[in-house]
Amino acid sequence: MTGPPDDALTASGLRARFASTQMPEDPLDVVMPPGLSRWPHRMQEKLEGPLKPAGVLVPLMQREEGLSILLTQRAAHLKHHAGQVSFPGGRMEPHDVDVQAAALRETHEEVGIEPGQVDVIGYLRTMPTITGFAVTPIVGLVEEAPALVVDRKEVEYAFEVPLAHVLNERNDQLVDRDYEGRRFSMIEFHYGGERIWGATAYMLVAFRRFLLNK
Q1: Cα separation of 163 and 160, whole Å?
Q2: pLDDT given for residue 114 in this prediction
């Protein structure tokens, strides 16, 4: 396998690739993750149950050394996805006009990035989670690298992974997991001692497949 093309690693290339995307009209119109048929039946059932709309931001940080993706380590006491690596974001509240507004609001609350600091360039298809959410990833460039203000009630810390690392399939880790006595394989990303798995890993895979047209 070869690495990603150069234009996939630039802000202009990303803008061009995502220009054709639109925010889903229905925030509950989900696309099931790839490889679902290999998942335990109980997990599949949870994805098909009642879902609540949510939005996450895929923040592409523009650094001198290149683009990177900002992720958060969620606090251990949270009700949903506790202790997991996630994109900043959360469920849609009644005062949010859409899932993009929810993602930007939650990003500001969790890591201090103002909505005005995010240049939204596109969207990925909405994906269900086994915790009962229909999550729409909002792709945004953060042009000025702001000083993060982490809300310790929700986030333990934030970290970045180079975009080139995520786009290179040679960095995928296929890991066996057990769920209610059944073993199956899922893709993970490992970088700098961090382990990115579950729904976040599948969103990164969806991001890569769309960007590289695979």
Answers
A1: 9
A2: 94
Is the per-residue pLDDT at 1 higher than 80?
Answer: no
3-state secondary structure of 86: strand
In terms of Cα–Cα distance, which of 53, 193, 18, 199 is closest to 134? 53
- Do the Cβ atoms of 145 and 120 come closer than 8 Å? no
Question: How far is Cα 78 from Cα 154, in angstroms, rounded to an integer?
Answer: 7
Domain residue spans of the chain: 6-211
Closest CA to 127 of 42, 212, 198: 198
Taking the C-alpha atoms of residue 25 and residue 140, their distance in angstroms, rounded to an integer, is 19
Q: Which helix (H) or strand (E) holds 99?
A: helix 99-111
Domain 6-211 in this protein, CATH class: alpha beta
Strands (E), 42-110: 52-63, 66-74, 85-86, 89-91
Per residue in 108-117, pLDDT (tens digit) is 999 999 999 9
Instruction: Provide the edge-to-edge strand list for the sheet that holds 182-191.
Output: 172-179, 182-191, 194-196
Report residue 199 CA to chain centroid gap. Answer: 8
How far is it, in rounded angstroms, from Cα 205 to Cα 209?
Answer: 6
pLDDT tens, residue by residue, 54-75: 999 999 999 888 999 999 998 7
How many other CB atoms sit within 10 Å of the CB of residue 2? Answer: 7
**Distance of alpha carbon 33 from alpha carbon 141, whole angstroms:** 25
- Is 207 in contact with 68 (CB distance < 8 Å)? no
